[in-house]
Design the sequence.
């Protein structure tokens, strides 16, 4: 594949999932607005702690199968022939069933202990017992979506995600309206069940051959998937535990309302702004897994991905900083203005994250478990200590700066590791572009302190236009956007004729 086609493929997949994720974000914003209006910051704190705990349990019991299976399916999927991966897909579906049952039982049995650990008492024992079924639902749906991603069936994957979120929301609206805080449990269950139904529906559209698999073959092949998955589980659990401990710490020091603010701020950064990384990883990870043995191809693919990531995230950062007061009021309520200093500082970390994220996939694609575990432990410990110290001394605003500083450290660390281990490096053209993006984002952060409102928004207008202009200019140099647009219009015209 030529460089031009590679860039076009990245942009095509990003556009497809970007459109889907736009609606998913819209759905999430509506759901968040409902929560903010009907149950307030304290209710949001309860939901955050429940979901965070369930997330940790899902990761522990899931053994990272949803990610490791994507790698195995991608590697075995040869020449778009489903016969080459039918056995792997059957094995993946069996594994997620067993891990889902394990997770559900684990959550149910330890529901009282989880309530005491998370909320300080046994008041949420019933909640955890009831929600244990969502761990099974999540594991099963993750397995179906992993099959679609590994086969690069992106349209089915996009539809499964979109419709699962949409129907979960439609059922949630009347529940929040009539039941208020009592709607928390049924809405979490309905959302996970809706995701499960649509993941099964679209996964079953892929017709694979049914083969009889002996127990010995199942154990042998599942061992390879679980081995990588276990490595990923450790990393995922460490990340979730780090978030969980910070939430509990914030709750102990500042109360449930502060947990609600913390969760609201990082939902904006990770779920809404950070969704761009989830979108791009959909195609990026399976593609990188398929070429993981060739360091030169890996280097080129990572650089292309980082290039596009930085150009997309730069105008998003500038727009976010310019309109963050409006965004917070629209998504939440005026009560949540307390998170503005936190998200304004934290958003700058996304520029570092765009590059470190691109490099981080090298370790997973290569299955380099030894160094991956070491980096997971080190970086998560660093994140935990930085966030706890930042909140203790500087409150919510400190968390924003610690978020930004952490991703700077992660960027530097990943650069050193990938250079020493795989001889990975970025070309000088990339650093030139990255410096320009850094300056524009840095200026956008400083403009928020300008007191004259007219001057402030004139400067923001200039920076927004500059960031969009640079992004379009640089992307056009790589893939000729006019040619892509003309081709798209022609296809639409031919289809209508």
Sequence:
């Amino acid at each position: 594949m030529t460089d031009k086609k590679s860039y076009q493929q990245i942009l095509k997949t990003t556009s497809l999932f970007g459109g889907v994720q736009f609606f998913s974000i819209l759905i999430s914003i509506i759901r968040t607005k409902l929560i903010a209006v009907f149950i307030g910051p304290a209710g949001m704190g309860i939901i955050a702690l429940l979901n965070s705990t369930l997330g940790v349990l899902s990761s522990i019991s899931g053994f990272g199968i949803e990610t490791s299976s994507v790698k195995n399916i991608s590697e075995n999927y040869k020449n778009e022939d489903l016969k080459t991966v039918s056995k792997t897909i059957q094995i993946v579906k069996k594994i997620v069933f067993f891990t889902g049952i394990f997770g559900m039982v684990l959550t149910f049995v330890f529901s009282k202990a989880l309530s005491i650990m998370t909320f300080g008492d046994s008041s949420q024992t019933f909640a955890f017992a009831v929600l244990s079924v969502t761990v099974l639902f999540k594991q099963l749906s993750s397995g179906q979506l992993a099959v679609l991603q590994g086969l690069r069936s992106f349209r089915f994957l996009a539809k499964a995600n979109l419709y699962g979120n949409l129907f979960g929301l439609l059922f949630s609206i009347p529940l929040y309206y009539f039941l208020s805080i009592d709607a928390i449990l049924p809405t979490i269950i309905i959302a996970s069940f809706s995701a499960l139904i649509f993941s099964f529906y679209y996964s079953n559209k892929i017709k694979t051959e049914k083969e009889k698999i002996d127990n010995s073959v199942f154990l042998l092949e599942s061992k390879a998937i679980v081995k990588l998955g276990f490595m990923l589980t450790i990393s995922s659990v460490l990340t979730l535990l780090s978030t969980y401990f910070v939430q509990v710490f914030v709750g102990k020091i500042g109360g449930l309302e502060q947990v609600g603010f913390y969760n609201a701020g990082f939902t904006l950064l990770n779920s809404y702004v950070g969704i761009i990384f989830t979108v791009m990883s959909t195609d990026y990870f399976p593609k990188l897994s398929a070429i993981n043995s060739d360091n030169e191809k890996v280097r080129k693919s990572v650089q292309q991905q980082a290039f596009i990531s930085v150009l997309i995230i730069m105008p998003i950062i500038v727009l976010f900083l310019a309109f963050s007061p409006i965004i917070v009021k629209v998504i939440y309520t005026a009560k949540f203005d307390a998170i503005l200093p936190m998200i304004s500082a934290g958003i700058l970390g996304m520029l570092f994250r765009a590059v470190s994220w691109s490099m981080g996939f090298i370790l997973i694609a290569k299955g380099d478990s030894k160094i991956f575990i070491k980096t997971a432990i080190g970086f998560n410990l660093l994140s935990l200590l930085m966030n706890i110290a930042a909140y203790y001394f500087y409150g919510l605003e400190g968390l924003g700066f610690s978020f930004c500083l952490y991703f700077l450290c992660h960027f530097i660390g990943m650069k050193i590791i990938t250079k020493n281990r795989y001889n990975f490096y970025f070309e000088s053209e990339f650093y030139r572009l990255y410096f320009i993006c850094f300056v524009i984002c840095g200026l956008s952060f400083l403009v928020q302190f300008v007191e004259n409102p007219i001057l402030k928004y004139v400067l923001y207008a200039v920076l927004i236009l500059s960031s969009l202009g640079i992004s379009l200019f640089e992307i056009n140099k790589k893939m000729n956007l006019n040619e892509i647009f003309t081709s798209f219009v022609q296809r639409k015209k031919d289809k209508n004729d």
User: Anything to note?
Assistant: The radius of gyration is 23 Å. The longest helix spans residues 369-422. The chain has a mean pLDDT of 83.
